[in-house]
User: What shape does this take?
Amino acid sequence: MKTILAALALTLAGAPAAFAQEMTQTTTLERGGQIGSEDTFTGTVFVAPVFGPNMNDVSAGEVTFMPGARSAWHTHPIGQYLVVTKGTGWYQEAGQEKQIMRTGDVVFAPAGVNHWHGATDGTSVTHYAIQAAENGSAVTWGALVTDEEYGS
Assistant: This one.
């Protein structure tokens, strides 16, 4: 009986190790990136994945906008956080005034709110864009932001 209990104790003690996962690391070079599509961005924009849809379909990308560059109008089914890591940029909710965002700011766009974001006309900006997918989609793209909309 002692042998059975000892074997059971050893088996149970080893069980968590059998299900444990290891931490992982990826480098900037491994993740890569690409120039943003002309269908969804105006100007020079570099989009680099930070992590793909994993926990609860959440993903993040590091997006760098050169001066004058911006996203198209768009919405997110669950919402989006922008964590500004460098520079100064603008964002705008449809029907509202354009707002400034700076290094260290966090901007939240609630689900379904039509908005755009990007650099100012004289400075670049980099932010992490963090959003979750619903039914496989994290964004619905709209029209490009016109020069008139951007300049107002």
Summary: The helical segments are 2-19, 28-31, 147-151.
